[in-house]
Design brief:
This protein has about 290 residues and is of the alpha+beta class. About 65% of the residues lie in helices and about 10% in strands. It is built from ten helices and four strands; from the N terminus they run ααααααααβαββαβ. The protein has a four-stranded antiparallel beta sheet. Helix 1 runs antiparallel to helix 5 (about 115-135), helix 2 (about 40-55) runs parallel beside helix 7 and helix 9 crosses helix 10. The protein starts with a helix and ends in a 13-residue tail after the last strand.
Length: about 290
């Protein structure tokens, strides 16, 4: 009974964060991006391009673009994350179109100072996406593209693929609307947004090292490897107080991957003991290869 109550509270909390995060993101898009004719990265950026060409609502277009990606995610990656990603996509789409309606009705926009607009946009989007990511969720889009490509080409990180996909959308906007300035502003607020997300979720530091103590080493390590681009090392361990045999798993990852990895571990072994420490320099495959 207590477990069911805790699950209900957690679900309510997660939905609250998804709604608040989506609203902040939607405000940035409708109050700043669209009135200033800025380019936008990611799936929302593709939706903005289609909106400007056809006047179709950004949120509805974005959701439509996400549907085939979610189907591919279901087929090639697994069903576990699809339901949550689908629901967050629905919330974000509704918020985007709901805020757009409010902006049109009450004539809300900010177009006075481009630099202030860019910085504010980056902060709002970063904080909004950061709130969503604190729950381990994603709104889909280029994140799914990254995971799908990484499933086929394991040597290419998800982050690299997402960056290429986002950059491609911005370039498409520049070409279609012949506005280099719009693309440059998009790069600036995308950078600000990424910094805000990093500070909100993980603070400072180049990378993180996880030391995971669990009795389910094989099961946990397989789940981490299959659901992330990171490798895991298993070291036999023994509790000095209990005398029980155990496993210590070591994994190094980028900051924005840690929360997802911890959720994967906790889902399999809720009683696991995890230490997360700073890794100021990481050398090797998937990180810096300049020894």
């Amino acid at each position: 009974m207590k477990k069911s109550k805790n699950e209900a509270v957690n679900l309510l909390k997660e939905n609250g964060l998804w709604i608040l995060g989506s609203l902040l993101y939607a405000i940035a898009v409708n109050v700043i991006v669209l009135p200033n004719n800025f380019a936008q990265s990611g799936m929302t950026g593709a939706s903005v391009i289609i909106h400007n060409l056809t006047n179709l609502p950004v949120g509805a277009v974005g959701f439509a673009l996400n549907v085939p990606l979610l189907i591919l995610m279901w087929i090639f990656i697994g069903r576990t994350s699809v339901a949550k990603t689908l629901w967050v996509s629905v919330i974000l789409s509704l918020c985007l179109d709901g805020v757009a309606w409010a902006c049109d009705k009450f004539n809300i926009s900010y177009t006075e100072d481009k630099i202030v607009a860019v910085l504010l946009c980056g902060a709002l989007q970063g904080f909004g996406l950061g709130l969503i990511m604190t729950t381990g969720a994603t709104s889909g889009g280029t994140d799914i593209i990254g995971m799908l490509f990484h499933k086929k080409w394991r040597h290419i990180s998800v982050g690299t693929i997402v960056m290429i996909a986002d950059f491609t959308v911005v370039v498409a906007y520049i070409v279609v609307f012949r506005s280099l300035e719009a693309g440059l502003y998009a790069i600036i607020f995308a950078f600000v947004s990424s910094r805000v997300i990093d500070y909100l979720l993980y603070g400072m530091g180049n990378g993180k090292c996880l030391m995971i103590f669990t009795s389910k080493g094989e099961e946990v390590s397989k789940a981490m490897i299959s659901n992330s681009p990171r490798g895991v090392s298993i070291i036999p361990a023994k509790g000095a107080y209990s005398g029980e045999a155990n496993n210590m798993l070591i994994c190094v990852a980028r900051k924005n991957e840690i929360r997802r990895l911890v959720k994967i571990v906790k889902a399999i072994d809720p009683k696991t003991f995890i230490i997360v420490s700073e890794a100021n320099e990481i050398l090797g495959n998937g990180f810096n290869t300049d020894f």
